[in-house]
Every structure is written in C-alpha cells, then in structure tokens.
C-alpha cells in the first residue's frame, strides 16, 4: 500500500458564549487542522493537529507532505523519524511536532482500517473497554458571577452523570480561587472527583500556598500550577504538596518529557496525542513514565478525531499500578460547546453516566461526516 496524498482541512466554528482561562485570551472561535491521508488501496485515514490550524497546515504542506507521499503507511515510525529529522535543526519543537502528530494519527487510522482492527488492538490491546471520563469546563465566562457560574456548571455535570470534573483556576486573587473551588466542592459533595487547572499562571510560592490551602478540599490533581519551562519549579511544587501535581500538555516528544519524568517533576504527565508527537510518540512517553512511577493521563482538546485518537491510546494504557480495584487513567472530555467535537463523526464519542465506551470499529473507530467537514472548512 502506498500513500497517494496528504490533505489538510482547516476547520473553524464560532463560540456563541466566549470563555477564557488563566491564559488570558478569549475563546471566540474553535479551530482545528484535520489531516486526511489517502492511499492507492482506497483507504483514507484521519488525523488532527493541536494548536494554530493554519500554521499546522503550512508545516505539513511545505515540509512534510512530499516526504510522506509514496510511502507505506505501515512504516509509521520510519516516516516519523524521517519527518522529525527534517525539522529538528530548526528548533521548533511545538507546532512542528503537532503537525507531525496529525500525520502519525492518520497513519494509525489507515493501518487499523487496512487490517480491520481498532488502533488499540495494534498498540497492545485494550486494558479496558470503557473509560471513565472527566468533564473539563468551569472556565471564566461572566466575571460578575465567577463563583455562581462555576457552581451551576459543576451541578450540571453531576446531573449528567459525570463522576469527575476539572475546573479552571487562576483569577489573580488566590482567595477568590479558593472560595470558588470550595463552593464547587460544597455543591458537588464528597463523592465526585475534582481537579483544578491553573494553566501555568502561578509562581512557585503562590502555587504552593494555594495548593496547601486547597489540600482540605480533596483535589484529585493540581494541573499546570506553574510555567511549563520551569522544571526545577515543578520539582519544588510537587514535593511541597500532598495532592498530585500534573502537567505536560505543553511538552513535546520523548526528549521533551525525559527530564520531567526522570526527575519526577510531576506526579502525572499529560501528553496530548495531537501535540506531543502522535500515538507513536505518546506510547514512548507513557512507557518512560511507567518506568519512573509517573502516571500518564493524556490531555485532550480538539475535534472528534483528536478525541477518538485519545480514546484509542487510553484503552491501551496499563493501570499504574495494577491492582484488584485499579484507578485507571481517565479520559479528558472537554465540555465547552464545540460542533467540531460533537458533529464531525457520524457516531460521536459520547458519555453515559460518566463512562465512554471504547469504539470497536477499525482504525480510530469513527467515520467522518464529509458534509460537516465542508460546512466548517475555511481553508
Ligand atoms: Ca490543561
């Protein structure tokens, strides 16, 4: 089988109710670069790149596309190393790796379709056929109702059956953050897991002080307390707090994660399959984490394709540690309104009572609705 073409689709949808996080910019649109790879066998595979879609598209079209055409999709890691080698001299480890991730995911989709198996069967098999999903939400929308809106939204997720929720923090006022987290914990009760995500907005002392103040609120993990470049700082925060510290959605490749994992700078690493190098590279990152006693719980933020790829990857991640009643890695199921996530697959990945079934269909286990693809396509 030979690859005959690589096509990028830049999709964009408007966000009706703009929201923000501690990063400080308002989300008014959701966009994604979708990668379509076709073959001479008539099999098409789909991938997705995290981050600025037009940049991803440009990197693929100008740097990768011609090197991929004519190759056998089953040479997925040969292709990966070749593309990485093509760009490594230029020091761009972020968006170039996200662009490479979209190609890698599409190749896994093709391989699965070629042999009639879901991707998780090709990467070791399913440790579980159902995933526990956690709802990511509780962004900042109405600055006059920050506590009330968080409580309302958290209650909605509990009513929908979610057993775990992740909320945004980082309002420039640790007392307000603490009040808001405490109000959500009070509203959802002790039985629902609650994680907090600061989107790297704190200094080390602020993160430690706020983390200690939140210890009584039974926080599942404290995500991205500080800037991703500051590995020494992560070691300090992680050692200082009893609660787990998580991060890694802004790290890329096995080399980017190596020091973080070997130093146990975080308790949980969160590579994104659409950003950190695709399914091929995230498997290596997960293996390295396992060897160092660090949990791997992937980050996910994208369309139906990125979500499906994350589900396939998660199904094949072992419990760390294995146990009679293990605590398996959970699926990040982001809940802000996004038609690219909800409509792009003919049978979208959905949760019921907080559980997501791992699709058994070939490849990523979803079929793309081309009419929806065209509807949101801007380039
Ligand atoms: Ca995050």
UniProtKB/TrEMBL annotation:
It comes from the Bacteria. GO terms for molecular function: hydro-lyase activity; magnesium ion binding. Pfam families: MR_MLE_C (PF13378), MR_MLE_N (PF02746). Transmembrane segments: none annotated. Keywords: Magnesium, Metal-binding. One of its GO terms (biological process) is amino acid catabolic process. CDD domains: MR_like. Residues 147-244 form the Mandelate racemase/muconate lactonizing enzyme C-terminal domain. Its cofactor is Mg(2+). InterPro entries: Enolase-like_C_sf, Enolase-like_N, Enolase_C-like, Mandel_Rmase/mucon_lact_enz_CS, Mandelate_racemase_C, Mandelate_racemase_N_dom, RHMD-like. PANTHER family: ENOLASE SUPERFAMILY, MANDELATE RACEMASE, MITOCHONDRIAL ENOLASE SUPERFAMILY MEMBER 1. This is Mandelate racemase/muconate lactonizing enzyme family protein.
């Amino acid at each position: 089988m030979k690859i005959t073409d690589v096509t990028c689709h830049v999709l964009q949808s408007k966000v009706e109710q703009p929201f923000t996080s501690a990063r400080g910019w308002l989300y008014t649109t959701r966009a994604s670069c979708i990668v379509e790879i076709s073959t001479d066998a008539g099999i098409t595979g789909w991938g997705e790149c995290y981050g600025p879609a037009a940049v991803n598209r440009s990197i693929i079209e100008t740097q990768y596309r011609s090197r991929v055409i004519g190759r056998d999709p089953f040479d997925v890691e040969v292709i990966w190393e070749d593309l990485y080698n093509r760009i490594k001299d230029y020091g761009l480890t972020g968006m170039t790796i996200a662009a490479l991730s979209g190609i890698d995911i599409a190749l896994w989709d093709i391989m699965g379709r070629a042999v009639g198996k879901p991707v998780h069967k090709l990467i070791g098999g399913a440790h579980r056929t159902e995933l526990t999903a956690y709802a990511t939400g509780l962004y900042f929308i109405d600055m006059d109702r920050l506590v009330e809106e968080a409580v309302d939204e958290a209650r909605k997720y509990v009513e929908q059956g979610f057993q775990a929720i992740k909320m945004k923090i980082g309002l420039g006022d640790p007392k307000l953050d603490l009040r808001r987290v405490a109000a959500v914990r009070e509203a959802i009760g002790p039985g629902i897991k609650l994680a907090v995500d600061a989107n790297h907005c704190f200094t080390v002392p602020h993160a430690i002080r706020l983390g200690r103040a939140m210890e009584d609120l039974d926080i599942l993990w404290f995500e991205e307390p500080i800037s991703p470049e500051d590995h020494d700082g992560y070691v300090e925060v992680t050692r200082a707090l009893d609660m787990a510290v998580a991060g890694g959605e802004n790290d890329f490749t096995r080399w980017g994660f190596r020091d973080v994992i070997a130093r146990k700078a975080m308790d949980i690493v969160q590579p994104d399959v659409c950003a950190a190098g695709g399914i091929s590279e995230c498997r290596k990152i997960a293996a390295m984490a396992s060897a160092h006693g660090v949990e791997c719980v992937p980050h996910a933020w994208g369309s139906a394709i990125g979500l499906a790829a994350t589900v396939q990857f998660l199904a094949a991640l072992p419990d760390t540690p294995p146990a009679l009643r293990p605590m398996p890695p959970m699926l990040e199921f982001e809940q802000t309104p996004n038609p690219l996530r909800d409509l792009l697959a003919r049978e979208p990945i959905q949760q019921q009572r907080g559980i997501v079934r791992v699709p058994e269909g070939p490849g990523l286990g979803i079929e793309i609705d081309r009419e929806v693809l065209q509807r949101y396509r801007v380039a």
